[in-house]
Amino acid sequence: MTDRWFDDLPEHDPNDPEAVERALRRQERAARRGTSKGGRPTRVKKPARGGRSGGPKTGRIVAAAVGAVGLILVLWFFFALFQPFKGSGDGEPFPVKVPAGSSVGQIGDLLAEKGVISNATLFELRATISGKRGDLNHGVHQFRENMSYSSAIDELAKTTARRTISVTIPEGLSRSETADVVAAAGIPGDYMDATVKVPGFDPNEYGAQGRAENLEGFLFPATYELKPSADVNDLVEQQLQAFEDNIAGVNMKYAKSKNLTVYDVLTIASMVEREVSIPSERKTVAAVIYNRLKMGEPLGIDATIRFALDNWTEPLTESDLATDSPYNTRLNGGLPPGPIGNPGLDSIEAAARPADTDVWLYVVKPGTCGEHVFSSSLDEHNANVEKYQEAQEAAGGSPTEC
Fold first, then answer.
1. pTM score of the predicted model
2. Domain 165-247 adopts which CATH fold?
3. What is the fold of 90-158?
4. What is the 3-state secondary structure (H, E, C) of the chain?
5. For the segment 27-58, what is each residue's pLDDT rounded down to a tens digit?
């Protein structure tokens, strides 16, 4: 009797053990090669391409995602570096001083700190790509906030031929008013801080006697030419030098005979600057101040109140006129503590040697542009004031014609 499993063996002699053994070995080898009975191949499922990732489709999705991220990064870098839609900045221009010897990186750091550009590193890269690393000039430049890199680079490069900065300081302006003029001229620095005290210049040498809290009155008004690298300290130095040069030629003999110091003369001159619109009236207005001082009468010059309030444009109210300040010459006799502005040479000379007259009152003459009517008696003055008020009522406002 034979077992059924022999049916699966290839042809052999069942009575030959060796033949059976060889047949068994052939069957084992066939099984290992993936065949079944009869030598037919067994179907084996091959793994999908891409191993365990899910096949070709998943691989293509991953590759596309990586490419999209890369494209976004490239576009971001392009827009950040070249800023194709960014303009020339926001707001009003303001000065920035680029120190001599500054590297491109240092310039970028300075502009980023001032809010001119958004990124110092990209600024340096942009300057390199544009080939303008060597064109960035030191000195004072005018920038706006949020400028594009190209606009900032152009500003730094375009001032190569600029040799000086010109600034005109009008006569009579106070320090605070002058500070606005200086800032508008593009001169960097804090003018108010720079004009508190300067080493080597002592107001007491001109009779201030400790009254001068700052350099008000000594900052000579004129037109100054400054180097592009100059700042407010350079301007103040020139103003003080101009003052010394001009005051040296003023004859102070008459003022000294009235026990007035140079500082007192500057104080009178600063009030003359504010009161006078017609140059020929300077000496007469100075005489009014001298005469009122001699009489012990308050000067009543409202410009001194404006100085105390730093209000040079808005109308003075009743409460303003009652301001508790040593600069209120309606309430206090004598000169105010110091100058209320920085007078020019003509007003200084008028204050040093006023007109020889006994007038001590004046009012604006109607129908003129700031001309005054002077008088030496209260009755005469009151009559002049009445004429002014009548003209004012008829005009429905100021009776002047400017």
1. 0.66
2. Dna Ligase; domain 1 (3.30.1490)
3. Dna Ligase; domain 1 (3.30.1490)
4. CCCHHHHHCCCCCCCCHHHHHHHHHHHHHHHHCCECHHHCECCCCCCCCCCCCCCHHHHHHHHHHHHHHHHHHHHHHHHHHHCCCCCCCEEEEEEEEECCCCCHHHHHHHHHHCCCCCCHHHHHHHHHHCCCHHHCCCEEEEEEECCCHHHHHHHHHHCCCCCCEEEECCCCCCHHHHHHHHHHCCCCCCHHHHCCCCCCCCHHHHCCCCCCCCCCCCCCCCEEEECCCCCHHHHHHHHHHHHHHHHCCCCCHHHHHCCCCHHHHHHHHHHHHHHCCCHHHHHHHHHHHHHHHHHCCCCCCHHHHHHHHCCCCCCCCHHHHCCCCCCCCCCCCCCCCCCCCCCCHHHHHHHHCCCCCCCCEEEECCCCCCCEEEECCHHHHHHHHHHHHHHHHHHCCCCCCC
5. 666 555 554 444 454 454 444 444 444 556 66
